[in-house]
Amino acid sequence: MYQLAGKRILLGVTGGIAAYKAAVLLRLLRKHGADVRVVMTRGAIEFVTPLTFQALSGKPVHTELLDLEAESAMGHIELARWADLILIAPASANFMARFANGFADDLLSTLCLAANIPVIIAPAMNQQMWLNAATQENLEKLKFRGISIIGPAEGDQACGENGPGRLLEAEDIASLTAKSFETNILTGSRVLITAGPTREAIDPVRYISNRSSGKMGYAVAIAAIEAGADVSLISGPVNLPEPERAKVTNVSSTAEMYKAVMSEASRTDIFISAAAVADYSLESISEQKIKKLNDSFELKLKKNPDILSEVSAMQDAPFSVGFAAETENLETNAQAKLHSKKLDMIAANHVGDGQGFDVETNALTIFWKNGQKQLEQAPKTKLARNLINLIADQYNEKNSNKTH
Ligand code: C5P
Question: Is 286 helix (H, G, I), strand (E, B) or coil?
């Protein structure tokens, strides 16, 4: 269940006897590396106390829609932006009815409306309630809207009856949730990604570099893997674990990154240049450590190759995506780069004042030839998935235009 690592899951617990099983599920999700926040309905609190979930999640449990304290810390809109996925287990008949009809009169139902992310529900109820035409109609409505329904299982019920309505086992819920992160939208395509900073040596111990942490590029690599792509990641020096199932090449200087990219570019379908590549390098690197003899001294720099422009200028160039980190005039500068570098897409973000580099969240505006999309402030992992969705859409559209 490696797909759960680092995922932000909003676990909704509704009122039913199976609510206690959500505690086991929560432990399992956390064991596999998910970051879980729990939202309980008023009904759920009658069965299990919020303290149980608070202790197991290590985070405050959210219960009220309008809670002054919660709104000043992580209010319902922040919660919706934070999450990668909403998992409701157990989902009661009442909750399904309210969700199917678009209610927004408590925190969980409001989140389901406010969050534009996948929702999985694991129903649990008495078998007659499950089989009732009203519940079955609600079920169809939810399925039609793209909500994933997992279970219920059949068997002995807490009420003494036997039939459909048992909550799936926690193991099964966790593993289906993990699998739901695999989208297959890029299955069969080869994606080459650069990430992190590059370092330009001054002498054997010193270098020029920048504040890039590599977090965005690594998140994009993971999102591309989950989309089914064959991923090659060329990384500058970073402090991040290597993504599983990617081919990783570690480089230091721009010249090394250039060489590594060029050796693979012709076998690539999509090139995503997320690295903060140094624009200049030393004209000559001192062989010995430079001594502090003078009050001032100058470094002579020469321009580095623009890796992205070289790739996008190739014959049969891959679908090329650049990043533009800007401190001002975001849209104008990004649009200019889209054209001058002959890109298919560019992801622009504001940097400076604590934004962009070496932080967990970001906001991106994506531009392509005939469109643009704003991705609001969110964890980089979530932005990366949205970016990969947009890339897959535009890449497929470009390919279908080519074949027609
Ligand atoms: O021109 P600017 O550096 O702002 O462009 C940023 C984009 O170009 C990023 O996608 C970056 O990875 C790429 N780039 C590159 N080689 C360079 C400089 C930037 O690939 N030498």
Answer: coil
Fold for 2-179, please state it.
Rossmann fold (3.40.50)
Query: Domain segments of the chain: what residues?
Result: 2-179, 190-402
Two tokens, residue 233:
């990641």
Domain 190-402 fold is: Rossmann fold (3.40.50)
Q: Kindly list the distances between the CA atom of residue 107 and the CA atoms of 52, 80, 117, 371, 396, in Å, as whole numbers in the listed order.
A: 19, 11, 16, 34, 38
* pLDDT 10s digits, 321-374: 999 988 889 899 999 999 999 999 999 988 777 676 667 788 999 999 989 999
Q: Is 263 exposed, middle or buried (0-12, 13-18, 19+ CB in 10 A)?
A: exposed
Which ligand 1 atom is the nearest neighbour of the CA of 311? 20
Which atom in ligand 1 lies closest to the alpha carbon of residue 321? 10
Q: pLDDT tens across 143-165, in order?
A: 999 999 999 999 988 888 889 99
Q: Among 210, 277, 366, which residue has the most ligand 1 atoms within 8 Å of its CB, making it the best to mutate?
A: 277
